[in-house]
Structures are given as C-alpha cells and as structure tokens.
Amino acid sequence: MKPLFAKGPSLGVRLLVLTVLSVALMVVDARFTLLKPVRSQMSLVLMESYWITDLPQRLWQGVASQFGSRTELVAENEKLKTENLLLQGRMQKLAALTEQNVRLRELLNSSALVNEKVEVAELIGMDPNPFTHRILINKGERDGVVLGQPVLDARGLMGQVVELMPYTSRVLLLTDTTHSIPVQVNRNGLRAIASGTGNPERLELRHVADTADIKEGDLLVSSGLGQRFPAGYPVATVKEVIHDSGQPFAIVRAVPTAALNRSRYLLLVFSDNRTPEERANDAAVAQEAQDRQGGESVTPVTPVAPAPAPAAPATVPKPQAATPATSAPATTPSTAPATPAAAPARPATHAPASQPARPAARPPASTPAASPAPRGAREE
C-alpha cells in the first residue's frame, strides 16, 4: 500500500542543510559584493513588514498623545507665563540698576565705559591639538581686532585674542592650561585666580585660603583687576569645594558658564584699554575744562552792565531848570532815582550826576547874602 504522504528527509538533515546554506551566504556577503543588490531589494520588502509590525505601537502612542497633549500644553503654558513674568520683573530691576550706575558714574566723573561696544564674530575653525584650547574666528586686524581683546558668548566669557591675522584671529579659551583670569565671588566679592585645567568643562581656583567664604553654587565674575577683561561678566560657577585640614589652601573646582565647545557665534568686546593713571588724568583735564567753561559763562555777564552806562549822561541834562533856586533841591532827588533805572551801574552814575548839580545850587546862596542888609537897617 502506497503511503498517503511521501516521507522526506529528516529534520536533522534539513537543519544541517540550512545551517550550511546560512554560513555560505554569510561568507559570500562578507567577502564579496554579489549579494548587495539582493539585500537592497529585500530591504524594500522587509520595510513594509516593519511598518506593519510597528503599527500597533504607533497607534497607541498617537492616541495617548492626543489625550495627554492638552494637559501638558496647558501646564507648560502656565509655567512659561510665570517665567516670563519673573524675567520681566528682573529686567525692570536691571534697567533701574543700570540707570543708577550711569548716574553714579556721572557724579564720580568716571571715564569708565558702562556699556562696551561689541561686534559679532563666527567660529570657523578649531585647533586640532588636544592639549591646547584655541579656536579660529572670522574677524581679524582689518576689522579692528586687537591682541588681548576679550571674547564672550551669550552665557559668559570665553577667552581672549592671542594671534592676529588680516581677516581671522586665534582665541585662547579660558580652559587652556596656560590661561588664568582674575575673578571674584559675586556673593561677597572674594577675589581669586581662575586657571585652566585642559578640561573644557572645568576651571580651578588657585591659592584660595581654606577658611575663605566660598561654597558650591557661587557665581564667579571677572574682577577687571588685570585690565584685560571688563569687570562684571560671568566666568564660572563653583561646582566643588574640598577642605583639607592639613593643607593651607582649599581645592575649588568650577564649571565655565560659557559653552566653550558648543557656541558658534561669539562677541568681541571693545573696551577702554587706558591705564588707571591715564583715566585719572583725562578725568582731571575734563573737569578743568568744565570748570573753565563754567567760569567763562559767568564773566561775560559783568561787561554787559557797563554797556548802557554812556546813556546816563543823557539823563543828567534833562533837569535844565537849574536857574530857580527852589528847583535845585528838587532836581537832585529826581535824578538819583532816574539814573538807576537808566543804567545798572549805580556807583558810576551817581557821582557824576551829583557833582554838576552842586554848582547850580550855589548861586541861590547869593540871595541870602543880601540878608545882612536888613540886619544893617535894624542897627541903623
């Protein structure tokens, strides 16, 4: 009797054949490029299967996002509104502090700049040497860049220009082992020196006393003592402070605030490079010039007063009724108030006006001279 189903090879034989075939295909695919067109065609077929198998998960994620997105958006909107309100309040306070700083500098007659001039530059290259932290920017000597010019990004100081070329410049970053910058703790004004460690994410503060008031989270800003970096710009944030009772100095590590390995657009700061002595001399010269201008503005008022003085004699001849004896005393008081109205120089006008009036008053004195005649008649 013939069996209903033909008996084929055993499972062991099939497994062995498939194993040999698989190994042969892997060797051919690794050694030769004959199976690349087959793989590319198979990928088109398998892509549909991948999409079908991943469809349930994508549908579930879409439904969950539709129900959860509204709540998340409302919460995020409220959070952004709160942050916006806080930032607006801080901005108003910052504007008030800036105006107050300007007024105080004007009172002190300080020549330091409150807002430095800046220019945008772009990073175009990096030094391939892993032991130096230098970058190349697209601004050079033709653009007014100078050696030692500070460079910063949107978060804080990055470094300074150390090499000039006509159209490009090389910037030494803060984290380079050969770079140091004077800083101070923004909380209490403690001064220190921040040096590079060769790690783009770390700075170290040198020679900080073990008893110094510095702690984790303190903001370090530039102090401006080196006359190279402008004061007040953020440099780093203290990350770790290690106190050792057997060492005179504490180990202070900080993280730069600037994105040294991520920023692409930078700012070149054009600050005042004068020394303190030059600033003091310029301020003294400006003060002297201001005082001189103030003195000259007062002196021109005095020569204007004598100008109408020649008009005073014109008022003197007006009282021509000097013939009667009784009119003489009347003219003297009348001319006295008239002269101040005509000319502000009071002492200069009274003296000449009163002297010619006296001879006119003397002739009436001759009339009383005839008075002895009646006396003689009485004696007779």
UniProtKB/TrEMBL annotation:
Residues 124-269 form the Rod shape-determining protein MreC beta-barrel core domain. Gene3D superfamilies: Rod shape-determining protein MreC, domain 1 (2.40.10.340), Rod shape-determining protein MreC, domain 2 (2.40.10.350). Pfam families: MreC. It comes from the Bacteria. GO terms for biological process: regulation of cell shape. Residues 312-360, 367-380 have a biased composition (Low complexity). Residues 277-380 are annotated as: Disordered. The keyword Glycoprotein does not apply. GO terms for cellular component: plasma membrane. PANTHER family: CELL SHAPE-DETERMINING PROTEIN MREC. This is Cell shape-determining protein MreC. It comes from Pseudomonas zanjanensis. The gene is mreC.
